[in-house]
Amino acid sequence: MKRTFLAFAILLAPTLLFAQGAKQDNNLDYKIFTGQYEKGNAEQQEAFKLFFGADDVQNKFDFYFHWYNVAHEYSHCILDFYGKSVGRVQEEIIANKFAVKYWKSVGFDEELARLKVLLEERLSTFTNPVPEGKTFEEWYTEIWGSSKLMEVSVYGYLQFKSVLIAMEDEGDLEAWFAAVGIDGFACPKDYKSGKYPVTADSAVKYLNDLQSFFKSSGFKMPAVGLELTDDPTTHFSQKLQ
């Protein structure tokens, strides 16, 4: 494969961006920004075809970023809100564990199984970039922030492998909170998120349902908004000040 670089704005982030100046959304603690494939230029869209495969790339993009990744980004907000951010690759894995456990808790086992098949298929097209003698976490920590990480196959392997690692983790959402050192969370019973046609517009609906889930638990959580952007490489969480 040609060495192709994809300038992901903050797909790397477990580190949240901090807004400068006054807080623009008075009722929000954080905001998730997520790009739209259909608004990207030809070069960006071609790069995502390498990332997801050319077949039905729009649907795969929305399925990953505007369904699954909503919970992933929200977890970065939780970790920062409670002062538990660890940064780098470790937090990517922790965030994916949260996302997997949340989606299981609200009735998305079938979708998670479909996501697993998609990611395994995509990983089969990438050569494992981790050198012999290095662990997955060690090597990606070493190259964090470098141009090497921006290669589609290297970045794709990080993202997809870390989700599959998270899928192997046992325990429920309550166990996740305990593991990261946040005490007192009790999972609400019989709460199911809505299921919406997977498009960019569904992202805010999934975020709203996620926050309703935690509101019903009575547990103190950050208030998070979501904004769609025209840049499909932009997916990050921002703390508002």
What does this structure look like?
The protein is an alpha/beta fold and 241 residues long. It has one domain. 48% of the residues lie in helices and 8% in strands. It contains eight helices and four strands; from the N terminus they run ββααααααααββ. Strands 1-4-2-3 form a four-stranded mixed beta sheet, with helices on one face. The longest helix is centred in the first third of the chain and has 25 residues. The chain is globular, with a radius of gyration of 17 Å. The N terminus is likely disordered.
List keywords for this structure.
single chain; 4 strands; 48% helix; 4-stranded mixed sheet; disordered N terminus; 8 helices; alpha/beta; 241 residues
How many helices? The count is 8
Q: Please, how many domains?
A: 1
Class per helix and strand makeup: alpha/beta
Percent of residues in helices comes to 40-55%
Instruction: State the low-pLDDT regions, or none.
Output: 1-23
Largest sheet strand order: 1-4-2-3
Average of per-residue pLDDT values: 89
User: Total strand count, please?
Assistant: 4
Main sheet record: 4 strands, mixed
| Overall form | globular
> Radius of gyration, rounded?
17 Å
How many angstroms separate the termini?
43 Å
Listing every helix as H and every strand as E from the N terminus to the C terminus, the arrangement reads EEHHHHHHHHEE
